[in-house]
Write a structure and sequence with these properties.
It contains 11 helices and 8 strands. The protein is α/β, with parallel strands linked by helices and 251 residues long. Helix 1 packs parallel to helix 3 and helix 4 runs parallel beside helix 5. The longest helix is centred in the last third of the chain and has 25 residues.
Length: 251
């Protein structure tokens, strides 16, 4: 995987309008790996479609088609499928869209996860870690978030899933526990904010793919524009991969 292919951009994370999204997609598509599209974006556009008519509907459809054409199949579809009764058909239908990756909720259980994997087509299936706060996780699962994420990772490996979408600290923990069969994708702040994991640190820690939003789509002034922001992050990833390889050789 090339350094640029490890960059996943949250195109609509800042609620960008379709014109802005289309412009960004055209500029960034040659420079990155994937664009993440989540349920919030899907539902908001569906709501707009069903509540529009006439020319508004026409221009909305035109805008959606333009963005789709610009991003092509470079899609990380974060839909977190969570119904074990319909997972087989949903996975099959999603595979017809041919996204690079789509997500499922591992809480549906090993049998359902295996169904998703069996019907993924050419796509990859990623489970998700736990995004609940400590107290909420204890209430729902009876264990802390890290423990439940470890359980999910074991389930995903056993079901031959391809990877996991989780918080950066969970990604580091999974690598330290020897989960090397799963690709790990995490949301990262690309602007090196104090107290936040940097792209370099994330790659050095074993995280494979970085999901980045405003740091690219609305970069700070010193980054000048989204393409330059991507190039700087790509350089950090390159250095991180080099450092990871050197550390392995030492061991």
């Amino acid at each position: 995987m090339e350094p640029r292919e490890r960059i996943i951009v949250d195109l609509m994370g800042s609620n960008a309008d379709l014109v802005t999204a289309f412009d960004l997609a055209n500029k960034l598509s040659p420079c990155i790996g994937l664009f993440i599209v989540g349920s919030e974006t899907i539902y908001s556009k569906m709501a707009a479609l069903f509540s529009s008519s006439g020319y508004s509907l026409y221009y909305l459809l035109k805008g959606i088609w333009g963005v789709k054409k610009a991003i092509g199949q470079k899609v990380f579809l974060d839909v977190r499928l969570n119904n074990p009764d319909s997972i087989e058909g949903e996975s099959r239908d999603i595979s017809r869209l041919n996204p690079a990756i789509f997500t499922i909720d591992p809480s549906i259980g090993p049998r359902a996860v295996k169904m998703a994997v069996a019907n993924k087509g050419n796509s990859m299936v990623f489970g998700t870690g736990v995004f609940l706060e400590e107290e909420e996780c204890q209430y729902v699962f009876g264990v802390p978030p890290d423990c439940q994420t470890l359980r999910y990772a074991e389930l995903l490996v056993g079901a031959d899933a391809d990877g996991i979408l989780c918080l950066p600290e969970q990604g580091v923990m999974l690598r330290s526990h020897g989960f090397n069969k799963l690709l790990i994708a995490c949301p990262i702040d690309g602007q090196n904010q104090e107290g936040q994991m940097t792209p370099y640190d994330a790659i050095m820690s074993g995280i494979d793919m970085l999901i980045i939003g405003k740091s690219i789509t609305e970069p700070l002034q010193q980054f000048e524009n989204p393409v330059k922001a991507v190039r700087i992050i790509e350089l950090a990833i390159t250095l991180g991969l080099k450092g990871r390889k050197e550390a392995r050789n030492v061991l």
